[in-house]
Every structure is written in structure tokens, then in C-alpha cells.
Amino acid sequence: MNLETSSEQFNNKTLVDLEKTVLSIAVHSPKACFEILTQLNKDDFFLKEHGIIFQTINDVSQESRIITLTKLIEKLETTKKLDEVGGIEYISNISGYYITDEGFEDYIDLVFKSSIGRKLDKELDYIKKLRENKVPIDEVFLETQQRILDIKTDVHKDEATEVKEIIVDVIKKLEDLEKNQEIINGVPSGYSELDQMTSGWQKGDFIILAARPSMGKTAFALNLAINASEYNKGVAFFSLEMPKEQLVQRILSATSKVDSNSLRNAKGLTPETWKRIFASGESIANMNIVIDDSPGLNVLQLQSKLRKMKRDFKIDICIIDYLQLVSSISSRFESRQNEVAAISRQLKKIARELDMPIICLSQLSRRVESREQKIPLMSDLRDSGAIEQDADIIMFLYRDAYYENKNANFDSAGTTDETDVIISKHRNGPTGTIKVNFMRNYGKFQEQSKK
Q1: Is 241 a known active-site residue?
Q2: Domains contained in the chain, CATH given
Q3: Distance between the two ends of the chain, CA-based, in angstroms?
Q4: Which GO terms describe its molecular function (predicted)?
Q5: Between helices 87-95 and 12-28, what is the axis angle to 10°?
């Protein structure tokens, strides 16, 4: 068989021969059989009969681990599928395709790519039917995006790894950390005590930052973005509530230490103030922070945008403001709680797939306000207990001053409040509380001076 032939150019006979070759190798080569069974599934085969044979080979492997032609035929007879796949004569014909298992990886790849092509053609036909039935274009886009993204474009690789291989990487990482005298191997938060607890935001982690309204969630998230950019890390910031101009104005206030009210109304700006504004403006222009303020994003749109940002802007970390404003692509959920749970799971999946930390802001329920002790708990997370399960890190912001004088202006000048950053859950490290100072008029969180 000519392996240089593109899977797109296969005629049906060539594809059938290719599938017979893969199945014959699975029967006769124990070494190749494992790879074939883990990297393909029955739906990847063009002929239904071949899918049934593949699944039967898999079943025999699960039961006895050793595949033989006799065991395969016996299993097909037991399940009453032997006649359905062409009988003993057809199984024998497939067996005759075995010569060697050399190059079986290429055969797997070609079968899989042919499968992708058929799945894509099927979805295109489905989309055409939606258009013919006058389905609203917005619904077509959402449905299309979901179905196309559901098509896996990479051969499944077995993720099981022997511990002797993993330990080499673990020790190498320890040696590198010792050599660099550096505890941070993730994206730095910019707060030394927080980085000591987390070693930086880790790739694939889903991090929840939660607090009551006006506690400073967005301000703290912007501080994290600014700090990460100062370490030459790329930041994607999805703002589903606040327009990008306001976000950048807040960044300008935090970096220039110019009162946010003054920046809003341009009053009381002295030559010295303007000097700080221009200096900060130049600094901000060099930050690799990419802002998307599209309202009403669904989780698939967010995934698509983030994938493109990572490719085009070398993004290392994503921040989403905030979880309860992200929508799902389905309207079939029985409750908002179930919908948020699905979104939370999907965001965790995206963090793993794109190999980057995702920090997602979240609201807390009002039950906090009804308690005498106002310090937030994980059970206070709004809309879904599933958030607690999905998140690798759950952080809360809490400051006594918020409750001592709730009528105080959030941006009142000259006010600095001690704020607790509470890590209540940390899947791979310690929990605890660090204290920072929140400079309300600048929207800046600053580490407390060490005593």
C-alpha cells in the first residue's frame, strides 16, 4: 500500500484494504495491538463490519489479553455477530492481510484522518440542512461551533506513563529550581507570600477568585494581570461586564497612582500628575495584556478566542471577569446552577487543553451578609457547588473595612484597607491567608511591609 497517498484521495477500496491491514495487525501483533486499541475506536472505521470486528478485538483483549484468530471468531459467534461481519471467510480474509507490523503507526494515522474527513462531511451536511430549514443564523453558528469543536483532530495517545519515566522529569525540575534559587515555576502573582504558597499560577490550573460585590475582585485581577506582564508573561483578560476603556483606565490609575476619580473627570491634574500619567502610559503600551470585552460570551466562543490569542499573542495566563456572566451554548439546563456547573467543568477542561492557568472571578451568595462572621466559605460560592469540585485553587478577598463602613466611597481618596487574600482550597499545596493593603483611590493592592 502506498502510504504517500493522502487520506483525502482514498477511494473506498483503498480505505477498506487499509482498515483490513490495521485489523490484521491488531490480531497478529501484540505490540501493535495495544496502540491500535488505544488510539482508535470503532467509529473511526469506514465499514460498519470493521467497527464491529475492532470492538470485538478490544473485548477479547480485555478478557484474555492475548488475541488469536480463533478467540476472535468464538467471540463473534457468542455475540451473534459473526454472520453480520461476513462470517469466518471474511475474518480469514482479513487475517491474510498481515505481513508485518512495521509502519503500523502510519496506518493508524491514515485510518484516523479518513475518519475525521467523514465526520466533517457529515457535519457540513447537517449545517446545510439547518440552513435549508431556515434555522436562525445565530443558532446555526452556535450549533456549528459546538459540533466542529467536538471533532477530535488528534489521534488519542495513551496517557499512562510508567513512574520511572515521570520521576526523571520531577527530579530535573527540582534541580533546575535549586540552580535558579527560584520557587516560582508558574506565572508569578507579584505577591511574594502568595507565590510562596502557589509557586506561581500553574499550567492547566483552574483558579477561582471570589468575593462580594465592591470587595475589589476586578481590581485585584487587574493587579495580577499587571504583575504577570511585568514578568514578561502574556495575559488574556476577558471582561464580560466592564468595557475595555474602563479597564485600561483602572490599570493607568494603579500604575501611575493617580486618583481614579481624577482620571474619570480630568480634574485636578497637575503637571506632575500628567508626568506620571504619560510615564505609565508608555509602560502600559509595552504590556502584553490582551483585553476582550465582548458581552454575553458563551464558553465555546471564549475557548475559540483564547486559542487564537494564545497563537497570536503568546498568552501565558487567562483571566475571566466573571463566571456568572459566561453563558453556555445550550438552553436545556434545568437550572442556572446546573448550567454554571457545566461552564465550570468546561473552563477547567480548557485550562488543561491550552496548558495555561485560568483565573475566573466569581460572585458569592448573599448568605454571607446574614452571618455574624462575614469571612467567606466555599459553600458561599454562588450558583454551583460544582465550582468547589472543579477548581484547583479557590481564593477569597475579605476586608473588615467593607462591613465597618459599607457606605464609604469605593474610590475615596487617601484610604488604605487591610485585605485578606484567603486560599481556602489548594489541590496541590497549602492553604492559608496573606494580607495585602488595598489602596482604594488607585485600585492597587500592595504587599504589606515585612516586619
Answers
A1: yes
A2: 7-118 (1.10.860.10), 185-447 (3.40.50.300)
A3: 75
A4: 5'-3' DNA helicase activity; ATP binding; ATP hydrolysis activity; DNA binding
A5: 80
pLDDT digits (tens, 9 = 90+) for 51-81: 999 989 888 887 766 788 888 888 888 889 9
Q: How do residues 267-289 score in pLDDT, each as one tens digit?
A: 777 888 888 888 888 888 888 88
Is residue 189 a contact partner of residue 227, using CB atoms and an 8 Å limit?
yes
Cα 115 to Cα 232: distance, rounded to the nearest angstrom: 41
Using DSSP bridges, classify how beta strands 393-398 and 416-426 pair: parallel, antiparallel or unpaired. Answer: antiparallel
Nearest-CA neighbor of 85 among 34, 122, 42, 118? 42
Q: Which residues pair with 425 in a beta bridge?
A: 394
Q: What is the DSSP string of 255-271?
A: HHT--HHHHHH--S--H
The radius of gyration computed from the CA coordinates of the chain, to the nearest angstrom, equals 28
Q: Which of 336, 429, 318, 342 is nearest to 390 (CA)?
A: 342
Catalytic residue selected from 49, 123, 241, 447: 241
Cis peptide before 107 (omega within 30 of 0): no
Nearest-CA neighbor of 55 among 76, 31, 74, 70? 76
Task: Kindly state the cell numbers that stand for 412.
Answer: 475615596
Cell digits for 323? 463566571
Which DSSP category does 216 fall into?
Answer: S
Element containing residue 140 per DSSP (H, E) = helix 137-149
Widest CA span in the chain: 92
Full-model pTM: 0.65
Dig out the grid coordinates for 352 from the structure: 488543561
205-218 per-residue burial string, b: 16 or more CB within 10 A, e: under 16: bbbbbbbbeebbbb
CA dist., res. 285 & res. 135, Å (int) = 44
User: For residues 225 and 237, is the Cβ–Cβ distance under 8 A?
Assistant: yes
- Cβ 235 vs Cβ 428: under 8 Å: no
